[in-house]
Design goal:
The chain has 16 helices and ten strands. With 413 residues, it is of the alpha/beta class. It folds into two domains: 177 residues, Tetratricopeptide repeat domain (Serine Threonine Protein Phosphatase 5, Tetratricopeptide repeat), CATH 1.25.40; 207 residues, Rossmann fold. The strands form three sheets. Strands 1-7-6-5-3-4 form a six-stranded parallel beta sheet. Helix 5 packs parallel to helix 7. The chain is globular and about 65 Å long. It comes from Actinomadura citrea.
Length: 413
């Protein structure tokens, strides 16, 4: 408690939020509210300050709900969960409280807890959204059979819920095609939830919490070449022959797109959403203009080399090179250690895009053996996976997937 108060008094709001993430559920709600009232006042968040002050004064369902709602809206849904649970204990049959609790749990990727909250009450509630959310969260928690069972019990929706029904049906069908899916099958679940093929698995820390994702990585020309070679393998296994490479506007995507065009022997053109048969190349979809990419054009394939799994892009790529929390481009500013053991920052590589693309093409694409703990991932395994799921690939819109799903990875602040 004193640590949290000291962080607030020093003005370290980010530190306070990190502290509360790990300690709030064991603290008194009133103390959490007082801390957040002070933090919100310093941050200029009047809605949060008012809701926190009200909950500090009185912990009745309305005040608990208002605080929880404010936390969800401000991106700190973990703080909403204890308040909304308390409110639901007081009013167990109030659907508004239940739906807000489920929303908070979903945002925290606590899907099994969302299932547990919905399960005893779902029959008494409107199936859109209650049973849909039960099926959705069952799928994201890794329970495919439960998700399929609940999805089959859903009545026909009205117009507003048709896209959600269709999306759930696509996810269940993809999971069936990719299965059987284990709790550490990152490629399989990545395909099931987002519809994209994950080209490479991180060879570092697989058994130490990463399960195939990178935390922090300095990208390299060799890894760029490696993911482009795996992209070609995916296209060949699926029988896809792009007609051109679509260049997105940011520098990194243009560099990688020019390299892809050289490797695949294709013309490179500025991206046009309506152009059929294009291989659209993004270095990182969070760093470029993704307009026009959610709805797919005939024959178009979207490739993203480096995809952030903790801050996912607004569209899901059809092929993803690798998943990371933080990645530094090979031509970006780099931190290295001098021969004398001192850290130094290397400025960005400002060479022309075509020259950097040529370096990717010339790089050695041999896989990184990593720390030896990751399972082998030979080309034939990836090609076999693509052949197995090809009938469910490149279907439907490219939806955003906010959750990492059933395969967890360690996060770093």
């Amino acid at each position: 408690m004193s640590d949290a108060r000291a962080l607030l008094e020093s003005g370290d709001i980010a530190g306070l939020i990190r502290h509360l993430r790990f300690n709030a559920e064991a603290m008194e709600l009133g103390e959490v509210a007082r801390l957040m009232e002070g933090a919100a006042a310093l941050s200029g968040f009047d809605d949060m300050r008012e809701a926190a002050a009200a909950m500090a004064a009185r912990q009745e369902p309305q005040q608990l709900y208002d605080f929880g709602y404010a936390c969800v809206e401000r991106g700190i849904a973990f703080l909403a969960v204890p308040a909304l649970r308390r409110a639901l204990e007081m009013m167990p049959d109030e659907p508004v409280l239940l739906m807000e609790l489920v929303s908070a749990l979903e945002r925290e990727n606590r899907h099994a807890e969302a299932v547990a909250a919905l399960e005893p009450r779902v029959d008494a509630l409107d199936p859109w959204p209650a049973r849909y959310l039960l099926a959705y969260n069952a799928l994201f928690s890794g329970d495919l059979d439960r998700a399929a069972h609940e999805a089959a019990r859903l009545p026909a929706p009205d117009g507003d819920w048709v896209p959600a029904r269709d999306r759930l049906a696509r996810m269940v069908a993809r999971a069936r095609a990719a299965g059987p899916l284990g709790s550490r099958d990152l490629r399989g679940w990545h395909f099931a939830l987002g519809g994209g093929v994950l080209a490479t698995i991180s060879p570092y820390g697989f058994d130490d919490g990463m399960t195939g994702r990178y935390a922090y990585t300095s990208d390299s020309f060799a890894l760029c070449r490696r993911t482009l070679d795996r992209l070609r393998l995916v296209l060949d296994a699926a029988g896809r022959r792009p007609a051109s490479v679509g260049l997105l506007p940011d520098r990194s995507s243009r560099i990688l797109g020019l390299a892809a065009a050289r490797l695949f022997g294709l013309p490179a053109e500025p991206f046009a959403p309506e152009r059929p048969g294009a291989l659209v190349v993004a270095y990182d979809l969070n760093e470029t203009d993704a307009d026009g990419l959610r709805e797919r054009t005939e024959g178009q394939v979207l490739f993203e080399h480096a995809s952030c799994w903790t801050d996912p892009p607004v569209v899901s790529a059809d092929v993803t090179g690798f998943l990371h929390q933080v990645a530094v481009a090979p031509w970006g500013s780099q931190l290295r250690v001098t021969p004398g053991g001192e850290p130094e920052t290397v400025p960005p590589d400002e060479r022309p895009e075509a020259e950097l693309a040529a370096e990717i093409v010339a790089a050695d694409p041999l896989p990184d053996d990593g720390d030896g703990g990751a399972p082998p991932d030979p080309d034939e395994r990836l090609a076999g996976f693509v052949r197995a799921v090809a009938g469910h690939w490149l279907t439907g819109p490219r939806d955003m997937v906010r959750s990492p799903g059933p395969v967890p990875s360690s996060r770093f602040a």
